[in-house]
Fold these 3 entries.
Entry 1:
Amino acid sequence: MSIPTDDNRELLSVVATMRAQPGKEQELRELLESLISPTRAEEACVTYALHQGAQDPAVFIFYENWASQAALDAHLGTPHLQAALRRSPELLDGDLANTPLHRIA
């Protein structure tokens, strides 16, 4: 199995974790899925993979790899992400947690 950081340890990995409000799982999923195509089209996006909890379908996680912190910062300012962030309070149960990571092994 290979992942992008096998070849490039300089990539910035991000795990974005969120929980849907009860009854809002499908709406949140659709909103998150709408981000995939435009985000993957961003030049410095290496990986943008959406996951849903196998045992808890209210949990959603993006696993991302970016060319740099500057690339992630640019992504955070894109119109498609900003629109989703404006809508997210009505769908999220709690806060969105973004965890930037550097691969060590």
Entry 2:
Amino acid sequence: MIAAPLAAPLLTVVGAGGVGKTTLAAALGVVSAEEGADTLVMTFDPSRRLKDALGVQDVSGDRVVRVALDAPGRLDVSLLDARATFDRLVARYAPNRAAAERIYQNRFYHQLAGHLAGVLEYMAVERLFEVAAAGQYARVVLDTPPTRQALDFLEAPDRIVGFLDSGALRLALRPWFTKDGHLRRGKVRRRVADLLDGIVGLNLLRDMAEFFQAFAPLYDGFRARARAVQRLLRDPKTRFLVVSAPGEARIPDTLFFARRLRQGGHHVAALAVNQVHPLVAGDAGARPAADGVRLLAWLAERDARGLAALRRLVTDGTPVADLPLMPTPPTGLPALAALGRELLQRLDAAPAPAPAPPWSRKARRRRG
């Protein structure tokens, strides 16, 4: 059975880039379907290897593709397409088709809107909201964007609401250009206009102004939707699996991320330390030529120290599971299922967290 911490209808896999989030999301999706739950795994463009493992080489856009899995529950996979999701939002909140087309045809929207900072992350949670509202799946597993700052994903709805309520937007909505595309006299001095033209280009500024003007009728709908997305991310049915790489150097970032999740009202299900080097048996030092074996032994000891330290520092009851480094990546559905089951078993068997030290704030609250 899916381990209790992860037994949620909405499971979001978060962490820094390169820690194996996408593979673990797919593995948990396979196990979920094997247990009889209709499951959707939403991910950004996975590697060719993972596509081959899932048997969905032709997945593209945000089209849902059925995985050929012999299981009681169905397993679907969908890529996260920020532009397609943005297009649907425009169609939903535009007052009419003409207003939507005005935005679709805008060059700023067409070329840049899907790549602006925060848009990619926000469209990921918007897509999660769409799927949750449709109610077609018993479980949805979301693989988050490969951003350098994983918190961008969580803060995206707040930034969208902040921007819609900001003075910068009100400034952008002013009529800076005439109908024939020229800067209005009195709005911008000639010298400033020449400077802007040299740095940014008036054509781009004109496209941006037109975009914000065309978008004005949609702001109320977008604001309400973004607030609904905020509530979904903080709902108890939405749980977060924090994935980290091994080693003591990763502990501060992992704990900081988990703490920020909780401070934001999100529900952390578990921490998973992925790709831990296994302990090396035998006396590697007795073989002078075994440099590779000695390196593996050193990495295993480093990872073991880091894992032990992390478990000592997690004092709030959150389970911490470790997953060993695999000799080869998963190359098929059975391998993904085995990886998912391994994670769940290790979560169930995770040692109880260490008690809070007597000087900690949590310990003082308990004594008080």
Entry 3:
Amino acid sequence: MKRTLQILALVVALGGVITWAATGANRAWTKTSVPVKTLDEVTGIEGITYKKQFLPGVDFLGAAFGGAALLAGASFFFRKPKTNQPTNK
């Protein structure tokens, strides 16, 4: 059980980093919409519209590391099973 929790902690941490990096490595807070510059065809004025898009930020990364730390910390509550070794009398 101890080794399983440690491996699961590693998977959670690596999964968080890979997801964060694959979606743009946003070094700000998590965003659910991003600004997009648009040009009005009639007047030629630039404007900003918002497109719905999920960009995980450093808070997402922190939550992944926090979850991994909890799993790794929980693994310390389990001991290795003792093996019965024959004694020579």
